[in-house]
Sequence to fold (548 residues):
Amino acid sequence: MSERESMPYDVVVVGGGVAGLSAAIRLKQVNPEIEVCLLEKGSEIGAHILSGAVIDPRALDELFPDWRDDGCPMAETPVTDNWHWVLTRGKKYALPHAFMPPLLSNDGNYTGSLGNLCRWLAEKAEELGVEIFPGFPAAEVLYNDDGSVKGVATGDMGVGADGERKGDYAPGMELHGKYTLFAEGARGSLTKELKAKFDLEANCQPQVYGLGMKELWDIDPDKHAPGRVIHTQGWPLSESESWGGGFLYHQANGQVALGFVVALDYKNPWVYPFEEFQRWKQHPEIRAILEGGKRVAYGARAINEGGWQSVPKLGFAGGALIGCAAGFVNVPRIKGSHTAMKSGMLAAEAIADALAAGRAGDEVTEYEANLRNSWIAEELQKVKNAEPAVAKFGGALGTVLAGADMWMRTLKIGLPITMGHHPDYSETQRADLYKKIEYPKPDGKISFDRLSSVFLSNTNHEEDQPCHLKVKDMELQKVSELGVFGGPSTRYCPAGVYEWLEGADGEPKYQINAQNCVHCKTCDIKDPNQNINWTTPEGGGGPNYPNM
Fold:
């Protein structure tokens, strides 16, 4: 501890996504004298950002009203065309727009790279005087003697896999703040700690998640329709009693962003989300768009799907949760960037007022009160039963019931019912209850394997460092994860991190290829015994997404 240097700030922001950047910007807009620093674990701002993305510009309009004329890359491609398909094995059925609640419309929205939006926001933040430190993951929460959050410490650099210091060892840095905002995204390691320490989830439903996998393709120019947005549901997940859906967005520069989301509450441990994604691309309607094109990028991340009832208590002494650390994704709309941004702005405004009043280190209750009376709350309350309805009743009936509930709430005649959730890991069933699923081999043109996909994510970690994926009890992993559940980590991980091999003694050996990790955190969520803990690796490690 004595080796660490410390730097004092008014506000420390952990995470360089849209929530953290919007908070930092708003703090400076309210009062340019507020000293703000922002830590980002990726090698640069945007390196770890992955989203569809179709952006509702509501929050961006509030933050920078002239963003469309100010070089923002998101302005390049407004949505022009919105399709929703229900897929069977070989056919598609278009869902008429008249059946869909108005809140699901994409009119006035934009499609593009969320990572590039973050890079633009970072430029704006630095122009305002925000100090941004990429490549420095916050690895530890610091506390004052009274238990309030004091700030964070970055991870030590130059520690070998054996835990010993190497020649280039450098201790972490302490960042002290009067307030600290945690914008780590879904399932952040420090957010987990804070939820437990301050019992932030005492009065909410458990958070549930989906695994989102995404690819960028350069497609045949004759097939490209800038601004066209396609969402799908049904096949292939309908065949394994799991659920989720696909997306295909025609973006700038002749590219399409396509991806697939699998809800992580699936029961069958033989389900292989990455392979379901590859199957989906082989559907005749999807394949027809991709044929003649070239895949240029791949990535994956977990997505909050719990909705309004899973939003925890947001504030605590010395800080608050914002963005996907708290979970403001509108699941039916497949959007969370605008709500994440707005949450960061609301937190910033409340903290700026607290600082102006001479406060520090207390709980800024005004943030939560303002958020729960904001358009975030209004929007998420309309869709709060959509995810649990589909989870409980399945893709077909659940979609009908979710649609009916959203229509009723839109018309202000909603039933006074809030459906609950079960943690994703608890839904996993024994392997012997299900038949193994045989997935087709990749053709190398439309479908691919995981390792070639990870290569396209530009993922890299310093090889000689402690493993950041911590298995608490290796014997439990062998007896239960493998013996009872059939080793689902070898399938749910979209990067091929986990393998069960035969050891020299003939016994199963658990191999963790941590260098492949794309920081999606699915293992932390879906392990049936909650026996794997994702932590931050050495600074700058992980994917380096160029345009995701």
In short: The mean pLDDT is 94. The CA atoms of residues 23 and 348 lie 5 Å apart. The first strand starts at residue 5 and ends at 14. The two ends are 38 Å apart (CA to CA).
